[in-house]
Amino acid sequence: MFNTVSLVKCNNYNQEQVDIAVKKSIELLGGIDKFVKKGQTVALKVNLVTRANPEKCVTTHPAVVEAVVKLVEAVGANCVIIDSPGGPYNSAYLSGIYKASMMTDVANNTNAKLNDDYNISEHEFPQGKVGKHITVLSTLDKVDVIFNLCKLKSHGFTGFTNAVKNMFGAIPGLEKVEMHGKFTTLDVFSHFLYDILDLFNDKIKLHISDAVIGMEGAGPSHGTPKQIGAIIAGQNPATVDVVGCKIMDINPMEMPTIQVGVERGYLQEDLSFEILGESVDDFVVKGYKVPKPNNFKPFTNIVPQFLQPTVHKLMTQRPVIPKRNCKGCSKCFNHCPMKAIEMKDKKDGKKFAKIDYRKCIRCYCCQELCPFGVVKIKSGVIYKILHKHKDKKLNKN
Ligand code: SF4
Ligand code: SF4
After folding, report:
1. Cα of 87 from ligand 1 centre, angstroms
2. Is the pTM of this model over 0.85?
3. Where are the domains of the chain?
4. 370 lines ligand 2 (CB under 6 A)
């Protein structure tokens, strides 16, 4: 049953429909009683990547969160809604995000609490493949159970985000910047994601994906909402992600987080597992716009140093900040893990952000965090030819 995924139709965010679909998706996996007991506290690890209203389809929809809360509370257990988006992990920063994403409404409509414990805890984790020392949100240590309530979206760095990537939010905001700086290539970063999952292995009981309306293009924060009509649930995050990839009509094995899932034993090599409920074929969205995952590797071994910046530019995708659109808010500057962004002066005295591509590791944190959607993805000429790729597809908001 660990590898079984449930797939249930849910065409819109009408609360009644979502309640029915979420309940059915969990019943197919054995029912809520299997995952939580009376008196326990469940952390609902939602995706609150940035301050955005539910219509933008950036965050886990409040109707999905509320449906899960009702089921948990019916068992006699308690919920705490939690995430740490990029940025400071404190009350001032999170309160605006809770409000915009309507998690505040979920808390008002139910007995769920919004996490207000901003302590962090350190874990020595020698068995981690790359994350030997992991700092996490303390609340996740204190609760009995974790449910991972992710959202299916395109993602500039990892190609897509769903269950596996969502647990990166277990790392406190500013620490995440450090982790991006430490695990610069996508395969190593993917191993870190599985280290987080392994760390919480005994506690994470369910992964439920809000794939009612997903996101394509410039995800995870500035893409376009895309109708899908599904709730995907399972106990194994990698299998939930494989279903997400199939729905987005992409080959799961082209995604580094899936490749590493196979390497780590979360998935069989042939990606086989049982799917209960509807057929994946009924949900496949043809032409779903997903960026190529960015497994950026400096060509230091084969290209002379003086040529490296040019080769990188031609062969990779890179974030671009158009000077005239930049509002000079410094958010990208403050959060770039490689200190690759400088704030410069415009002629009118206002500021703009400029990227030093010699330092940039293409993590796309700047694109994810820019509140104005200013950061675009641009592909080098050779990259475009090799991937038959048009930037227009990814930058359309
Ligand atoms: S400039 Fe942007 S993509 Fe490059 S390292 Fe900094 S945050 Fe990451
Ligand atoms: S976050 Fe966006 S608007 Fe703010 S400085 Fe960076 S690119 Fe400019």
Report:
1. 15
2. yes
3. 5-282, 305-395
4. yes
